[in-house]
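haha ok so turns out i had the wrong file open the whole time. this is the CORRECT one, sorry everyone. sequence first:
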Amino acid sequence: MTTTTPRGNRRRAWGLFAVVGVLVIGIDLAVKEWTTSVIAHGEPVKVLGGLIYVIYARNSGAAFSMFSDLTWVFPIIATAVIGWLLVMLRTTVSVPWAIALGLVFGGAAGNLGDRIFRAPKPFHGHVVDMFSFLDDHAGHFPVFNIADSALTVGVALAILLEFTGRRRDGLRVTGKDTAPDA
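then structure:
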């Protein structure tokens, strides 16, 4: 089966990737700056009746503060992920895939910015985290930020797209055949 991909679909997907990525980076940066200037010097903020608390935390490690003594590795990993996403984007015309890749890109770039520009020193920076579930001291669940949330949602969406047979090139795999994605 031969299929053609209209350039308009590719431009739309790439544009959406860029918009989602920039929005995630901007929102993440704004919330981190607010957290470091307001919450770091005050009390945690209770949201949704205590379901979520906005607190100030710094994380030198990865998820769940793992590998906190290997801070220098995370900028390398984030840069590799961003490069891989840009390579994947070249063949992407699917809008859902563009959204998923944009979320992962924005999340990786948001945390990479912390690693490069925040204390204690360049490429060893600690990520600013602020959201804590059910506890104002992160007692029930690891503290996270907007970038972490975008990464998680983007990866979950990508997994869902894979499991439902939706490909980045706009085709949908159904059994042994491929059909244009709706």
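Residues 75 and 112 are 6 Å apart (CA to CA).
again sry for the mixup
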